[in-house]
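Why do we care about 3D structure at all? Because function follows from shape, and shape follows, mostly, from sequence. That is the central idea of this module. The next example makes it concrete: a single protein chain, its amino acid sequence, and then its structure expressed as tokens.
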Amino acid sequence: MKAHLLLILVALASLALLSACAPPRIYKQYSYPVCEGKYRASYGPLSSRYVPAVQPSCRQYSTARDVSAWLEATINSHRLRGLQTLVLGCANLTQATESCEYGGPEGHAATLDMVFDFTRYDERIRVRKAVLAVYAFSNASYLSSTAALRGRLIVGDDYQSLAASRQPPVGQAGWILFDITDLAARAIIDRRDSVSFELSLPCTRDESSLSVVGVLRNEPVILVEYL
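And the structure:
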């Protein structure tokens, strides 16, 4: 009996050693094809909004790895997930509140956070244009002209201001396209799989300066145009 147990233990130890020395398992993720003379176009929800920078070219959209809201409050700031939409900006708790300072005692501020994987794009491509699209259900013109979009390539980096150029929709609802070409090109060549973006509105004394944006409903997308 003891001999059998000893043989079993030796066999288990041998299997453990063999598995430790074996090459790592390779997980292959689907990536978007390079053009190579075949100009593919996949716009997703931006088919009627995106204007190509060059013709012909390839265009490929992607959804976020993670999209959430950060609620800034005086004592209990926290992250919210699973939201369909988000009221972006500072909101007063009562109508009598005179102002809503960011993180002030009488209100809260909400920010839209998005994380995208740029390793889906082949590092051999030549980026011609890239946009981050966010859907505004209300007050789209104010959001387009006033919102601050910031991004960073990896966690721990400092955020940098983005999208000096942006394309608002016609009317007060629709997709707003923020130009992120430079950051997207860097993220693709550096193989960054967790590029973070943060969209926020400044605090004002007027709640008409709020905008409802899509989170899981009409979720944000990125579209990269390349050769």
